[in-house]
Each structure stands twice: as C-alpha cells, then as structure tokens.
Design brief:
There is one protein chain. The chain is an alpha+beta fold. The protein has a single domain (about 15-455), classed as Orthogonal Bundle (Cytochrome p450), CATH 1.10.630.10. About 50% of the residues lie in helices and about 10% in strands. The protein contains 16 helices and 13 strands. The protein has helices spanning about 20-25, 30-40, 60-70, 80-90, 95-105, 110-140, 145-160, 170-185, 185-190, 205-230, 240-245, 250-285, 285-300, 315-325, 360, 410-425; strands at about 15-20, 45-50, 55, 75, 145, 335-340, 340-345, 345-350, 355, 425-430, 440, 445, 450-455. The strands form four sheets. A six-stranded mixed β-sheet has the order 1-2-3-9-6-4. A three-stranded antiparallel β-sheet has the order 5-13-10. It has a two-stranded antiparallel sheet with strand order 7-8. Helix 10 (about 205-230) crosses helix 12 (about 250-285). The longest helix is centred in the middle third of the chain and has 34 residues, at about 250-285. The protein starts with 15 loop residues before the first strand and ends in an 8-residue tail after the last strand. About 45% of the residues are buried. Bound molecules: protoporphyrin IX containing FE. The site of protoporphyrin IX containing FE (HEM) has 25 residues, from helix 12 and helix 16.
Length: about 475
C-alpha cells in the first residue's frame, strides 16, 4: 500500500495516490472506498484490485468534471452497468440514444408539479399501510424495518407507475424478484471482467428473478398499449404516459417500455426503501435528533392523516433526510468508463479506464464535512432545506448530477417525509436487534443485519400547526 504513481502537479506534489486495495476492498468495499478517499486527501486515487485497476474520484471538482463538464467522455459501461444491463435492458439507466429518448419521455413525469398528482395517491397508500402497522403494534409483534419500508414504498411506487394495473399480490411478487436480482448480482457488480461463460454465485437466482419480473410486467404493458391504441387509457400513471409517448412505435416498443418501467421501479423503490431503513438505527442512537423530529411531526401533523400539504412545513424532517442521504446515499457507487483519453485531477487517464464515483466516500471526507461520521441534521439548517451556497456543489450529491441526475428527487422529498411523518405521528419505536448495523455492498446501500422494531402507539398531546 502507498504512493507509487508519478503524476505531479505544478508544485511537484503527487496528484495520484495508489492503493493495493484488494484485501480491504474484499472485506468491506463501502468503507474501504471512504478510507482510501480520505487518505488521498483530494488527489485522484488508483485502486489495485488484482487485474482490475479503477480510479476513485472523490474530490468535488473531479466529481463535477466526470458528471457534468466532461460527462460525455465518462459513460455507464463496464463495472456495475454491464451486469445490470441484463436486468434493465437499454433504458433510462443506459447511455446513448436509448437513454436520451427515455429521458425525454420520463423527465416531464417527475417535475415537482406532476409529482404532486402522484403523491396524493401515495399518501392514501401510506395511510392504509399505517393501519396494518397498528395491528402489529397492538399485538406487540416486532416488524422487520427493511421489509416494512420496502413493502410500503413498493406499493406506493407500483401505484404511481402502473396505476391499478398490478394487484397488491403481484406487486408483492415483483418486489422480492427485483430484490433477488439486485442482491444476487453483487459478485458481478464488483467483478465485471468475469466472463458470463463462467458461472458465479448468484447467476441462477438472477436469471430466475428476471424471468419472474418479465412474466409480471410484459402482459401489463401489452394490455396498457392496447388500451392506449383503443383510446380507453385512464391516464395519471407512468405506464400510460410511456405507452402514449411510444404509441407510433412497433412491437419493439414493448421492450423499451419494460426496460424503462423496470429501471424506474428499481431506481425509485430500492433506493428510497433502503435509505429509510437506515433512519431507525440513527434515530435510536441520537435521541436528541429523534426528539426534535417527533416534536415537529406532532406540531405539523398532529394525529394525522398526513397529506402532501404537510410536507413543506416538515422542515426539520427534510434536514434529517438530507443528513441521512449524506451518511447513507443509496447510490453509494456509480462507476463510469472513459471513452477517450482524459485528464482528470491533473492525471492523464487512458480510454477504457474505469472511474468510480462514490457519494458515500465524498460525503465522509473530513476536509468537507467536519466530524464526518456524526449524524447531525443541523448541517443542513442554514440551507432552508436547499443546497448550501458555501459548500462546493459536488461535496453533496446523493442524487448524482449533470445530464444523468436522478429524476426522482422531487418524488423522494415528498414521499419520504410522508412516510416518516405517517409512522411517527402514530408510533414510537424500540430497536430489538443488537446491532451495530453495517453497510452491505448491494446495488443500493443496505444494512447487512436485520433491524427488528417494536412499535408502540403514540397519541400526540399538542395538535397545532
Ligand atoms: C433515496 C432515493 C434516491 C437516491 C439516493 C437516488 C440516487 C440516484 C443517483 C445517484 C442517480 C445517478 C446515477 C448515475 O449518474 O449514473 C440516479 C439516477 C436516477 N434516478 Fe434516482 N435516486 C433516488 C430515488 C429515485 C426515485 C424516487 C426515482 C423515481 C423516479 C428515481 C429515478 C432515477 C432515474 C430514472 C435515474 C436515471 C437518470 C438518468 O440517467 O438520466 N430515483 N438516482
């Protein structure tokens, strides 16, 4: 381990740090990335992972270059994306013309104005699920935080995407199938150079999961396209908008619609559910933050039900979520591959090199974030819930940036406060699993351990906004 590359800047300082990284990376890739980035202190990092030698980009200026200024030189290929393409197809999560055409169709559907229509329905779905949680609380039965978050978010997202076309029972088959695909792929995500002729752990489970997803989604698309053709489509959901946008296209469009729906479903549900799963151990470990959060929700929402109208007044809740996304950005790593030779952070990088972007690593750089491991929502206080002007733009980028920036930010910042406020206006919780809870390197950052919660009914004493 140590410095042995020789790119120097004008002051003669080494501008790249090289780590023989395999043991640390194999043990805990998530924290290994954060550790390498911190030790490199703003310089580009080269990781030696056996035959695989990606660059790690953590400094905000370098992140800006990759995601924004020179984005066309850094494409979603190779590590992570190549295995994922077998699940997602050529879609909004791809590159080139299929990505552009999907982005043009999908972007208008997730603006803050359009999202408002989707979140009315989400609030109803979330409200219904609170009655189920009440049952667990009344019976004194513990609930698995990740499963509950995924179950609720999944139902809300499926409703926004498919309207009423997928039953709750089928929705509950889609979620574990997607989950199986996302987790069984772990080996290949990090080792993209392995040929597919070589069977690796998870391959068979992955193929089965993709087949289940297609069996659920393809007939729904065929029916929705038929409704659009015959003018019977109801509208208001994403599948209808996709079918309308692609009405003039041939049968191949079914596949494109499938790829976009599965991609948005994956991007929207896994990321949100896993983010919210981390909330419970953090609140448990920080009772003062929890108390401030509870007080705001009691004041704004009272005894509920929570509606999208409450969300703008849930200012501290938003700060908690921003800080949660700093420490546990669901998209903890999103790699790129250079398609031409570039200079990055003063270092010449050849075409075909793998570049790793990790918000998890950047968000924990002590030079940008004093006491980086401390959970402190007040870091976002001066921003009134918006990005700080004094911080470099790419010091905080849980939703990526540039032309591929996440389409779901508006949705997240309505949906997540709705769910958190719905739960905490009705319940208090105790964690019944021992912890500590550590990060597992799946497609979305998730806790390795199960987090069991005991819910207790809560009646707010002060009901005033
Ligand atoms: C906690 C929640 C979420 C996080 C942390 C998150 C994070 C991200 C990140 C980091 C990217 C950039 C990927 C890249 O540059 O390669 C991205 C892209 C994307 N996200 Fe999200 N996301 C979240 C929620 C959502 C939701 C709710 C939706 C629903 C619409 C969504 C839809 C998308 C789409 C479609 C893209 C691809 C955009 C493109 O390449 O043009 N995300 N997300």
């Amino acid at each position: 381990m140590g410095v042995n590359d020789h790119a120097r800047d004008a002051d003669g300082l080494l501008s790249i740090e090289t780590f023989r990284a395999l043991p640390a990376f194999a043990r805990d890739p998530v924290n290994a990335l954060a550790d390498f980035a911190t030790r490199a202190d703003g310089r580009l990092v080269r990781l030696h992972l056996g035959p695989f030698r990606p660059y790690l980009v953590a400094h905000p200026d370098h992140v800006a270059q990759v995601l924004h200024t020179d984005w066309e030189a850094y494409q979603r290929e190779g590590m992570f994306w190549r295995p994922l393409r077998r699940l997602l197809g050529a879609s909004i999560l791809g590159e080139g013309e299929p990505w552009r055409s999907s982005r043009d169709v999908l972007q208008p559907l997730f603006t803050s104005r359009y999202v408002r229509g989707l979140t009315e329905q989400m609030a109803v779905t979330i409200g219904e699920r609170m009655d189920e949680l009440q049952g667990y609380a009344d019976r004194g039965e513990q609930v698995d935080a990740a499963r509950q978050m995924a179950g609720i978010i999944n139902q809300a997202v499926i409703r926004a995407l498919f309207g009423g076309r997928i039953s709750r029972a089928d929705g509950e088959r889609l979620a574990p199938a997607y989950d199986a695909a996302a987790t069984s792929i772990g080996f290949r995500l990090l080792m993209p150079f392995l040929p597919y002729s070589l069977r690796v752990p998870g391959d068979r489970r992955f193929r089965k999961a993709v087949a289940t997803i297609d069996a659920l989604v393809m007939p729904v698309i065929a029916a929705a396209r038929e409704e659009t053709r015959s003018g019977r489509a109801g509208g208001g959901d994403v599948i209808t908008a996709l079918c309308e946008a692609r009405a003039g296209e041939g049968p191949g469009a079914d596949r494109q619609i499938r790829d976009d729906l599965v991609s948005v479903y994956g991007a929207a549900s896994e990321s949100t559910a896993m983010t919210l799963t981390w909330l419970w151990p953090l609140l448990d470990a920080h009772p003062q933050v929890a108390a401030e959060l509870y007080a705001e929700i009691d004041r704004v929402v009272g005894g509920g039900p929570v509606t999208p109208d409450h969300v703008p007044r849930l200012v501290y809740t938003r700060m908690v979520l921003q800080e949660l996304l700093r420490l546990y950005p669901a998209g903890w790593i999103f790699p790129r591959m250079t398609v031409r030779e570039v200079t990055l952070g003063g270092v010449p990088v050849k075409a075909g090199s793998q570049v790793l972007i990790s918000p998890y690593a950047t968000h924990r750089l002590p030079a940008l974030w004093p006491d980086p491991d401390r959970f402190d929502p007040r870091r976002f206080a001066e921003e009134g819930g918006h990005r700080a002007t004094r911080r470099a733009k790419y010091a905080y980028f849980p939703f990526g940036g540039g032309p591929h920036q996440c389409l779901g930010q508006h949705l997240f910042f309505v949906e997540a406060p709705l769910l958190v406020a719905a739960i905490l206006s009705r319940f208090r919780f105790v964690i019944r699993s021992p912890g500590p809870f550590t990060a597992s390197p799946a497609a979305s950052l998730r806790p390795k351990q199960t987090i069991m919660l005991e819910l207790r009914s809560h009646r707010p004493s002060a009901v005033a906004a």
